[in-house]
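Obj.: predict assembly geometry.
Materials: sequence records (below).
Method: joint structure prediction, all chains together.
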Amino acid sequence: MRYITHNAEETKAIAKELAAVLQGGEFIALIGDLGAGKTTFTQGLVDALGSKARVKSPTFTVMNEYKIDPPKNGIARVIHVDFYRFSKEAELGALSLEDEMRADTVIVAEWPNVFAREVYEPDIKITLSHKGGDEREIEVETGA
Amino acid sequence: MRILAIESSCDETAVAVLTGEGEMLTLESSLVRSQIDIHAVYGGVVPEVAAREHLEMLFPMIHRSVGHDGAGIDAIAVTSGPGLAPALRVGVEAAKALAVFWNKPLVPVCHLEGHIYAAWLSKSKVESRKSKVDPEFPALALIVSGGHSELVYMTGHGKFERLGETLDDAAGEAFDKVAKMLGLGYPGGPKVAALSEGGDPKAFAFPRAMLKDGSFNFSFSGLKTSVLYTLRKEEARINDEKFRKDIAASFQEAVVDVLVQKTRLAVEKTGGVKSIILAGGVAANLALRDRLTELGGELSIPIFLPPFEYSLDNAAMIAAAGYFRAKAGDFADPLTLSVDPNMDIV
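Observations (raw structure tokens):
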């Protein structure tokens, strides 16, 4: 499914639609250039799940965790991870992301495409592209 | 009271020893082993690399600082968050083991609180009122680093209220990403600052987000995107040195404008602020230091700028914060303390 959005609020609204069909256990890949709206999309998603967590870019912190309390559709937390600073698969060792992949958890990954191969097979792939100004094209692929 | 402090939240392994008596702090030693050379190869901080380096460096550094038996140490302070979990764990587990083995109380310290306490290490650096040596309360702290941009109101030792923070990218992250767009290396902050010298800060009108919303929050994501669009539009000039300098200077000016104006707003709205503290890695930025010093002069409030060696990650600041926590009896059980990568300042 392809969408065109004209501002951050519209991008968040697309994320809200996606949030409504999540069941927990999903791995969501967010693909897009700097400033394409990956963190904005995640803010919309976490907000729609009913979390008051303050979603920020995890570029420096690498991995942020947002609690969903009370859980929504069986989802109790969102793990927001950012591979921007990574380049080799071997560097993932200490992150132990596999340990975080649980049925009550949705993982949202920015820059999952920095590695030589696809390390994590996403359940949902979101591709955000700049269309000039605040306009973005958002492609949502599920069952990928 | 003599404190051994350990810091390993990101890419610096650090150990310090500090003695406190009343309000008087004496720093005995402060060792910092930076991993920037290693991370420059990767273009950033990679937790796997960071954790491995911390493991190799930490015990030799502790041994150099205090010797085998921990004699003369009254408490062990350690950064327990926020930061990279695998990196934090190295310092915290070492501190726990030493606390049990030497039978010393253990003080967990928030990394952001530590940054603020760098101001207590900078007694000679009070810019605008020479007679004041330590920050007075209430104090306002502007913490700016790669992972954080926050305005914190401090009413006493260990008493913090977060007034505002970044809603997307931290100021240091924006510097880092603009550095990458300009093909500069890591760490991006100093490289963008160096490039900006001689550039025209008014050449490009980059956005200053959220200046008029009355909040104390920041947003640097739109600024980053605006720089990206300008670079794309002017692609032919990307190797033109004047153009690059103008971009760097205009970008830096936008960041500094927002940080300084939000600080001014926080002083005006809270009232009675007696000191302004600049903290975190971006505190090394000269343009920011100059503009905040001007603000302090205008408002007649002393500005505390950390000396360069204590604005980047270090353990001396953790020792200072840990001393005041220890004085208040704020200890943790060394058997159960765990890291908190998302820790908030409270």
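Conclusions so far: The helical segments of chain A are 8-21, 38-48, 97-100.
To do: check interface contacts against the pulldown list.
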